[in-house]
Amino acid sequence: MPVLSTSGQSAWQAPLPWTLTSVALAVALHVQQLPVWVLATFALLALWRLLIAQRSLPVPSIMLRTLAVVAVVLAVAGSFRTFNGVDAGTALLTLMAGLKFLETRKARDHRLVLLTAYFLVLSSFLYGQHLWRVPLAAVVVWFITTALLKSDASVQLAPRAAMQLSARVLLLAAPTMMVLFLLFPRIPGPFWAMPGAERAVTGLSERMSPGDISELSVSGEVAFRVRFAGAPPPPAQRYWRGPVLHDFDGYAWTDERYAMVQQPATWRGAPYDYTLMLEPTGRRWVFALDLAESWPRRYRQTADYQLLARDPIHEPLSVQLRSWPQYVAGTHLPLTTQRRDTRLPEQSNRRTLALAAQMRAAAADEAAYVGAVLAMFRNQNFVYTLTPPKLDLDSVDDFLFNTRSGFCGHFASAFTALMRAAGIPARVVTGYQGAEYNRLAGYYIVRQSDAHAWSEVWLDGRGWVRIDPTAAVAPSRIEGGLVDALGAGEPVPDRLLHEFEWLRDLRFAWDAANTLWREHVVDFNKASQVRLLEWLGFVQPDWPALGLLLSLGVVFVLAVLSVQLSRELRARDADAVQRAYARFCRRLEHRGLPRLPHEGASDFAARVRASRPDLAPDADAITRLYLELRYGKSAASSAIDELLRLVRTFRPAGRPT
Predict the structure, then answer these.
(1) Which of 157, 473, 492, 633 could form a disulfide with 161 if both were Cys (CB 3.0 to 4.6 A apart)?
(2) Is 468 a catalytic residue?
């Protein structure tokens, strides 16, 4: 068979187009991760193979192919500095598949390339297990399976028939796949995940300079989701604590990780129990509701009450937490902490230092001074905006006395500097504020656009107290969210969704589907299997029980499939030919050519030939195949498929004259 047909046979009857397209689709799943040079090299190799087939060019010699393999290996090693890991392994697999194209001549060559395509599909899930990948991967697997059928010269199927057969094969395999997924013993960790596979996304860092958080707030990416065990806290208490910044150079806030002693907290009011479903960040930060009291043992809390994981978070995780929004954090401040959290650079922001001295002298005590600074932000001409002007190196002076326009980071920075200038220990806390309720799924969504910064000040007798100067300027930001706080001209990502409720519901539905997928498929682990066995009635389930249930499940599914397939095969051999011919006769009857009771197939074909010469070729071909399959010695599968195809495409028009 020619590789690419140039005659009456369709090009898609040959295996090469199917193989090339299948592998190209598998590679397309990695288009966001693979370097451009890898994609370009693969495309050039595929194009080279097409030119070889179309123009009958010679296949590259074994020496040239060997040199190409060496060049590819060296290029991958030079680009990734390793052969380990998802990125380097996927790049090498992609390029090797492209090189294998250059020697695809036999069916075995095509099958090897197509098996590589299956691995490429699998490796795409190592980059992330999001729901949107599933239908794309399913279509690619369907196409690869069809290409495998087309690579076998003994299976003469039309493209449509091959795709239908491959779809049926995959559907028949689905029950066995489900049994193995549910019952095959699990190792620790989520399904098909590799450490570091998820792409971390976070905009927060251990450094905050003017404009950082406002740039992050135009992103609608999900930071984490929260499911409360009971009623949620009111909006004014939805502060999610992240990095705490102590060090200020006059322009930016950082955390140099000095050793500190944590001040014990006492709790007031009622706690909130909740599950935090955190997206990958590449950091160790766990954004707990301020202030966390209990957490799993594999996490720890820093001296400034930030919750941390042991290792950077590279895959989604769920954490059970308890927090108390009302608390007293500390009763005595160590001298080292006091010195650190009152330190300011001496040669910068001098106008701020003078303003603080003036306002502190007019205030009766520290609490009154805090109130006076908040009143200044509230009553004077300060503007809350996502697009503030740039600040000079004395950022606080420039903000307080010139621009007076900023985002939460500007207000938190200026407020904290004013506190320190008056001798009050203060620090900047970054994290998130707010949450959007997904009423279709019953949990809250915190997005990158909810990123926020606020201040904490030390007041004698009250400990560390949260003060949010943004709430003084734009209280609607705390109560309603970013959209409510900003004008119509601000670049808020969710403004259109707030105007059209049906768009919000669509996004909620998609997010709920993704969450269900993650909770019940991606995070399906050993504990999930134990719960499944308990639901099935196993008391104290163990590995033997799981193995027994797995064996019984596989045997049951295979038995059902065997019975079903045997019935279909018997029906196909005995009745498919007769049913096809009956359909042929009915279509002729609808056009005024009924088959008479005494009329045999050959006589009927002769009458059709005489009455409708235009139908003679198709009628003769169908009749000939029918007689051969019905009364001949051979009943080849290919002949049955050809009869079914001819009858399916037989569409007589008009009536006999």
Answers:
(1) 157
(2) yes
